[in-house]
Amino acid sequence: MSDSKYITLISYDGFEFVILREAALISETIRAMLRGPFREAQTGRCEFGEIRGPVLEKVVEYFHYHHANRDQTDVPDMDIPVDICLELLMAADFLGLDSKPQMRDIS
Amino acid sequence: MASRNRPRPIRRPLINKEAGGFDQCWATLQSAMTDIHNKNASKLSFENLYRASYKITLVKRGEDLFNKVKEFETEWFHNHIIPGVDELVRNNLPSIALIQMTTSSSHERREAGERLLRGIRKIWEDHNTSMNLIADMLMYLERSCAETKQASVYATTIGLFRDHILKYGLKDVDGSDQPFIIMDVVIAVVLDLINMDRDGDIVDRNLLRDITGMLEQLYETDEEKENEKLYTTIFEPRFLTASEVFYKAECEKLLRESDAGSWLRHTRRRLLEEEERCVTSVSNFTKDNITGVVEKELVLAKMDDFLAMEGSGLKAMVDNDREEDLGILYQLIARIDKSKSTLKTNLQSRVMELGLEIEQTLKNTDFSTPTAAGASREAEDGTEGADKPKALSPAAQQTAAAIKWVDDVLKLKSKFDTLLENCFSNDLVIQSAITKSFADFINMFERSSEFVSLFIDDSLKRGLKGKSDEDAEFVLQKAIVLVRYLSDRDLFERYYQKHLGRRLLHNKSEIHIEKELVRRMRAELGNHFTAKFEGMFKDMELSKDLSTNYKDHIRNLGDDDRKSTELAIHVLTTNFWPTDVMGRGVLQDGDASRADCIFPPSIKRLQESFYKFYCQDRSGRVLTWVPSTGSADIKCYFPKVPGKDSGPLSKDRRYELNVSTYGMIVLMLFNDLSDGESLSFEEIQLKTNIPVSDLTKTLTSLSVPPKFRVLAKEPLAKSVKATDKFSFNAQFVSKQIKIRVPVISSTSKVEGSEERKETERKNDQTRAHVVDAAIVRIMKQRKELSHTQLTTEVISQLSGRFKPDISLIKKRIEDLLAREYLERMEGDTAAYRYLA
């Protein structure tokens, strides 16, 4: 069955965010999640056991911002409120957003 | 959110040591790995697993995790994979090539081999898939591994596969203690299948490709260095060795059973096959190596043997114009050897052989009948108008031989030109090799200069009148080609001068074609070479003008004397014309033939008159009449013979005889005789002062052949002796009014051997002078030179004319030393200085 265009990211406190699949694939982790035979790939829903709602919200916003401006240069940084920045950092680390997207070969 | 100024403390969900501890995480991961290996992963949540490894990494126990994973995999291999492999191998083992049992058919072997390989392939693929998933799972761990420079999980697990499966030794397979390494088994099976493929069996090539692909992805160590792929380090060498063995055997078989042509085709096919195999069955990396092996074993190893084969080897290919074979041979050799040296040497020797064969054929051909020499060549010397072919005179035979030689050489040349174009794609190396061989054998043949000139002579005399421009062009080109090959150009020049002289004087060829040919020769060989010929042309034109002018002059003098003799004159500049034409040839009796012969008075008057005319515009010139050339038209009146009433003798006969100058002088003598009187040979000789040999020839032509017997000879024998008597033959009858008594020197015949020696001697003399001049010129310029340098200079300067002998140069140097043109340098006897 073909993959749907949108996937759902769910925080541990129950907030659900629907986002374009393509946009979310910047994250290495989400990419790994969605390939392979795992449950997430089948349902198109990713649950994150350690990310809070507001933090995930910011992450999703980032995905969207990145995707919208993907072809442009010199894009100004997104606005990040100071009080969630630590948690956001950890979430980014978890999701593999701190490095440039690399493709890995699956033989 | 109340305050936005301070970061909020991080609140993690409940972590207690137990729940998020190492062991629990590991337990989760372990069970997940088992599920993955069992293809049961769909129940799992990736995020859980990822988070588990994440947590472990955060507490800095990543290394432990890593080791645990390794342990798990190793154990998995041992307990779950190896038994399967073991069974696979054992089941198929009796048929596996490793033990080389020949009792099984190749079909069984193939089936068994393929089964084994399929099994291995499946294991590999499964492993690969699982490992990818596990690596994903441990992605967080890997990211931190990358910072600490440990090998990646994936690489490590691949390495585990290599170590625990491929390098695993199956024990006790055939009762011996030697373990069978699985990898060896696999590779052996692969090689066996490849060999079967080569023999024409159908094997599963995709399978082979997958296996070799697997080997390409495995490395010797976990560091995955590029040049340490198992494929390169283990598979490829064995593949190349096995292929070498295979092709060596195949080559032997070919040598025993088939011929060079099929060898070539077979080799070409194999090369294409192997290249294809690199795409379908093994990796493309191997392409150069394997084609190298094929080239070495099939092409190079036994090439000499194949080429030497009777009936199909290089000799036969060339002789029978097997262009396809030669083309393939050329392509194959070009692959392995840029200089194509074997082909080159073989061709060269073949050319030499064929060239020398031509000479041999020449000796063996009997030219005595016209058909042997080619039906189109007519005999000279007296068989004009003959209806049935008579035997050719020896001179004509020799000429025919010359022409045949040239024809054969040209044919050989055109054959090789075709081969060069069609098979060797005009390769320059080969072209120059062939040219050199041609030059070699042509120059080895002593009479080549003479023969080439004769060939040109014959073509120009014979057929170019009336031929189209194209045909003429063709012949000219061929002629120039031959001249180019000759190295003794001065000898050729000498012969050509002689033949050209004869042609011009007897008007035997078209002047514009002659000029064209000389023009081309000039372009090829340089001005000095053709200067004489051009001088000869000019002389001819001038002479024509002179004759016309003289005629006008005489007419204007008013003496319309019907008895005066018409004069058509050729004035020849001495240096341009060949010496024997000028009457300075060598005679057997050693006399100079230009001793003045006594002309009849009417002729003498004519000569003086012309001389006066000639000197009107020019002063200080000496004209010398050459009686050995030239001809005269004489009107003869034979009165009817009294006593005969019927038949031709009963009538008056008037004929116009065309005879040589000597003939004219002799015949005029008989005008003063009364009937019945005769002159003896000696008397004639005294009265005319014609040299004896020429006189003999002249009298023979006038008295021996019945057609021209205007003089009666006593005795009637065929040969003329000094004691013979000659008289006017009143009974001479001829069907024609105009009779041309053949002039003996109008044909350019092949020289007898004494003549040739003489020509060569004269040529050598000239060469000595030329070398002298060259040495002096060089030394004058350079002042001081060493012996070797001088020699080299001389040779290179004279290369356009001939190749000087080293000994000749040495002799000339010594001569010049004696004549004090040069002196030896003090202290260095091998160097010379120019003395002004």
UniProtKB/TrEMBL annotation, chain A:
InterPro entries: ELC1, SKP1-like, SKP1/BTB/POZ_sf, Skp1_comp_POZ
One GO BP: ubiquitin-dependent protein catabolic process
Compartments where located: Nucleus
Keyword list, A-Z: Nucleus
SMART domains in the record: Skp1
Pfam family, one: Skp1_POZ
Domain named SKP1 component POZ: residues: 6-67
Keyword Zinc-finger: no
GO cellular component, one term: nucleus
Main location: nucleus
Domain of life: Eukaryota
Keyword check for Plastid: no
Function: Essential component of the SCF (SKP1-CUL1-F-box protein) E3 ubiquitin ligase complexes, which mediate the ubiquitination and subsequent proteasomal degradation of target proteins. Controls sulfur metabolite repression, probably by mediating the inactivation or degradation of the metR transcription factor.
Record family assignment: Belongs to the SKP1 family.
Protein name: Elongin-C
Protein species of origin: Triangularia setosa
Automatic annotation (TrEMBL), chain B:
Domain (Cullin family profile) ranges: 447-703
GO BP of this protein: ubiquitin-dependent protein catabolic process
Keywords, ordered alphabetically: Isopeptide bond, Ubl conjugation
Family matches, as InterPro entries: Cullin (IPR045093), Cullin-like_AB (IPR059120), Cullin_homology (IPR016158), Cullin_homology_sf (IPR036317), Cullin_N (IPR001373), Cullin_neddylation_domain (IPR019559), Cullin_repeat-like_dom_sf (IPR016159), WH-like_DNA-bd_sf (IPR036388)
Pfam families xrefs: Cullin, Cullin_AB, Cullin_Nedd8
Compositionally biased intervals (Basic and acidic residues): 377-390
GO molecular function, a single term: ubiquitin protein ligase binding
SUPFAM superfamilies for this protein: Cullin homology domain (SSF75632), Cullin repeat-like (SSF74788), Winged helix' DNA-binding domain (SSF46785)
Lineage top rank: taxon: Eukaryota
Ubl conjugation among keywords: yes
Region entry Disordered, spans: 367-393
PANTHER family listed in its UniProt record: CULLIN
Similarity annotation: Belongs to the cullin family.
Protein name from the UniProt record: Cullin
Highest classification ranks of the organism: Eukaryota, Fungi, Dikarya, Ascomycota, Pezizomycotina
